[in-house]
């Protein structure tokens, strides 16, 4: 017989298997989330609540018999039945088939309940802001120091006292440096000693001890350690997002709702992507104003429509606060497509000025519920469509139904190859 | 049970603590009884002490000490771990591996009494069964399995390096889905020799590439009309059809598989085959081990080698192990193989030593023969669950367990019929039915590959013979068939043939492009 102690074997033998499982699980969750987006109302997500997903990709299928058919069972523990008895099936149960013996073991325990945050994480995970690349990388890097162990050299202010004394003590103990009490005791002994011969021996011993303690210093330069820091470069994304919304009288509540949903998603998305992102909210009727988030989403306003006013405001703000050489500028505009006829030229001109400054500009045209989201003949759409033929970072979509918001958003911000531009 | 004070020196251990010397003493004491008194015949033992985490590991990779990597083992780990951490389930009593030397795992948390129990149960009970039962002798190669698994693990790792993890994973996923239909059910010409398998791998691969090209070269290219001339029987014979070992068929005949994919199918098939006897002998295997540990523990106590306290501790765990809840108990989840097996072994012992008139009538061959161990050793060697129950389930035990038979016909709207109970008229029917429930040929759906459309689109045709109106589970079948189509490389059709010999249902699948690299 042979006894082997396996306890000291490397732990986590199944770690690799577990990691593979988690990787696969993540993929499956992502797929399920995407599938569920098709028929999910945005409120379900944004109001919180929980989403549970059965995981198909986790199943390990095999050929098995299904329910139904004639079944025989031998069971233990009969007390009352006699041959020929008919036992009524429990109500609701189809086959009256007892659960499979000892099998299955709760395989469907692998259901994932995602909270709102997790759902958003998964949902936004494969989305990306176009041209996230910085224009001026050098300026946007910052360095933060982090602890990186100890070093033998450094500045006095970084001396690691604890570590140094610990090392010194280790060395003293290892080399057998006499302790102070030891020497003091010896000195006392010499003072009290009356016998000369003995005294000589003690003095010799004292001499060797003091020499030894001189040879082996209390703290040696070898012991000294310094705290070491390393600098970690941190790219700082300087990004600004302009949200432009038409709040004129022609915008119905439904349209405003659609636009708000879009911005809400955008807002969530941005706050996930950038640690620090400036957001500028501009709403306009026939004149534009920069407002705070609360007013933008919930403040009432009404009036005529002059899209150029919003673009002009955006241009002014860029000029005043966001140097395009340093900032990544994104624009998102929502409108019903209405614009004063006389405003067309000015709007086009402004847009052509703004677009080269932007990394990306998305235009969402909102329509009435039940409208056709594939085509649009609105003045603004026609105008923008003309500009789109030029190589400018502009993309546009029309949305009529709430359920389209998610897919459109997803579409606009899908991860793309670094080179390809968004083209609808 | 005799409750006398024994000299302390003779005790194998005191209290719950143990060390390696204790384990050695425990093993030697068990061995003395197992070999000397019970006449068991075992592989050399190797006892491995492991932690609870390692036990979870072993659990998740079907109990094998080394295994290739796959996400499903990680899934099972997570699953078991959840239950274990929540305290909803205890860890395995023991894990023992059918290999030579026979490896038994002991968990470090166990008390000395539990280590004794596990040693007696696994290192002697299971070990004897593995070495002597005819199914294991026929289908498994205890000397070669560990080396083979080592080879398999290395091979699959190399495949992952060369062909990418995803490709290997998809092949393994597909192979696992077909695992239950990857065994030879009937003895072939040769016995299994896994070492040989491993050596021949290279050679075989080259050879097979040629062979399989040859096979497909016979497909007429230009003159499509000629294909019709090939007789159905001839075509079937050329492909070895009908074939119930789906993995084997794919490995040999799937036209679009890479050589390494064939080898992976082969590995999964060997693993399935290795576990096949265990599936067919659950009741007997556990019954044997439980009977053996019960004998050994009792003898150890009689001989004064374990204390009364530790004997009581043993009885408590033993009672847990052989507990069989009644059908209306909330804890009921089918028959407990430990309980049924142990009860039947004890019943055989009773029939052999103290038979009643009824026993003499039912078991003329063994009743009153006196040599219980001799009879049991013979039973352990020559039966599997199905034949064991159909031979040895006695009226006495049927009465004791109060067994009854439910006949559930969906046509019968009033309810479920109690068609037999534990009385004179019922014994035989209950015994026959219970044995059938342990017959894999009866419980697993019978699926055969019956034809390949060589002349046309190379569609693979499978048939499931429906018994008792029990069709295949829809969603799972779809998934498995998809895997099958992916491996086959062309369309796959599964027909379900019902009692009147007509096609009642059909499932079809078209290969995805992913598996083929």
TrEMBL record, chain A:
Region (Disordered): 83-107
Lineage top rank: taxon: Bacteria
Basic and acidic residues bias spans: 97-107
Family: Belongs to the UPF0229 family.
Name of the protein: UPF0229 protein HJA87_03020
Lineage: Bacteria, Pseudomonadati, Pseudomonadota, Alphaproteobacteria, Hyphomicrobiales
